[in-house]
Task: inverse folding
């Protein structure tokens, strides 16, 4: 079924897409967000499992930029965000409701369709046509794509020199274990350990983050080397290796566990600009953490910058 022509369609409802949509919506444009997931947020992912709450992607974020800091301070007043711990000169924030609560909150005032896998993107010189796997055609006067770059480059046609630069950007993979403990963890306050000790990257005690739950849930993130080496290893074989490595820090027995793989966890390199804009008719912008930086804040700023550029077109 054909849809009305929007002012802008945004592919990807992670923080970059949401930031872009919010900026354009506040400027009075008709904006439609499309995401293949069941809910917005991307790696700002949270879930409940066997009585324990987990953040199993991004664990925290900082706020260095003035605009982003203002947004976070408004969330502090709404009890959506809380300081978690300090590093020299910088506060690490999290959400006691789970990191996914932030993109969920941002998406409430926006038009978002989840469960949409985009298969084809094309334009006729005036209008973008975004075609989903189920045959639905979405139309718009402008397009912003915030998906991971390998997925983005399969969809859009851009100049060869820029395509080569973006194709060269690689991503780390990351395997995550959601471990439910039968007692308290041995992770010292504030409940976060960055080990960088193969095969482990970080451990996080979600209850110490302030997430209310019946059981203690610890998120175990593998390092890039282990994740790449064991990407295709059956989870029944890979998970025990990570659980054994994490055992000295857990302090209690693991009663249940879940396994998740992030194919595009963090970009290894960063594009030198906040976004890429193709000044054509109809205009196209690319944004995401590979442009603004691999941090949560960087993803937000990338989407915001792409939207501001589009408003000048």
Result:
């Amino acid at each position: 079924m054909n849809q009305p022509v929007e002012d802008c369609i945004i592919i990807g409802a992670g923080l970059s897409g949401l930031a872009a949509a919010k900026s354009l919506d506040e400027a009075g444009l008709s904006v439609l967000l499309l995401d293949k997931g069941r809910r917005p947020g991307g790696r700002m992912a949270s879930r409940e499992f066997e009585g324990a709450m987990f953040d199993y992607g991004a664990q925290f974020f900082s706020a260095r930029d003035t605009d982003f800091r203002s947004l976070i301070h408004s969330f502090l007043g709404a009890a959506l965000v809380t300081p978690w711990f300090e590093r020299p000169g910088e506060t690490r924030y999290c959400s006691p409701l789970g990191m996914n609560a932030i993109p969920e909150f941002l998406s409430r005032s926006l038009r978002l369709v989840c469960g949409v896998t985009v298969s084809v993107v094309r334009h006729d010189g005036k209008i973008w046509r975004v075609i989903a796997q189920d045959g639905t055609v979405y139309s718009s006067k402008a397009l912003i794509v915030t998906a991971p770059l390998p997925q983005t480059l399969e969809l859009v046609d851009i100049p060869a020199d820029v395509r080569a630069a973006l194709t060269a950007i690689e991503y780390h993979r990351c395997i995550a274990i959601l471990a439910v403990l039968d007692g308290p963890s041995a992770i010292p306050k504030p409940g976060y350990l960055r080990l960088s000790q193969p095969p482990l990257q970080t451990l996080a005690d979600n209850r110490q983050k302030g997430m209310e739950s019946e059981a203690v849930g610890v998120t175990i993130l593998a390092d890039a080397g282990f994740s790449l080496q064991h990407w295709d290893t059956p989870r029944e074989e890979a998970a025990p290796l990570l659980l054994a490595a994490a055992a000295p820090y857990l302090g209690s027995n693991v009663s249940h566990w879940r396994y998740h793989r992030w194919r595009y966890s963090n970009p290894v390199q960063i594009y030198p600009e906040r976004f890429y804009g193709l000044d054509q008719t109809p205009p196209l912008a690319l944004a995401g953490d590979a442009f603004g930086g691999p941090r949560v804040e960087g993803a937000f700023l990338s989407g915001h910058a792409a939207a501001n550029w589009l408003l000048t077109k």
Residues 270 and 290 are 5 Å apart (CA to CA). The radius of gyration is 20 Å. The chain has a mean pLDDT of 95.
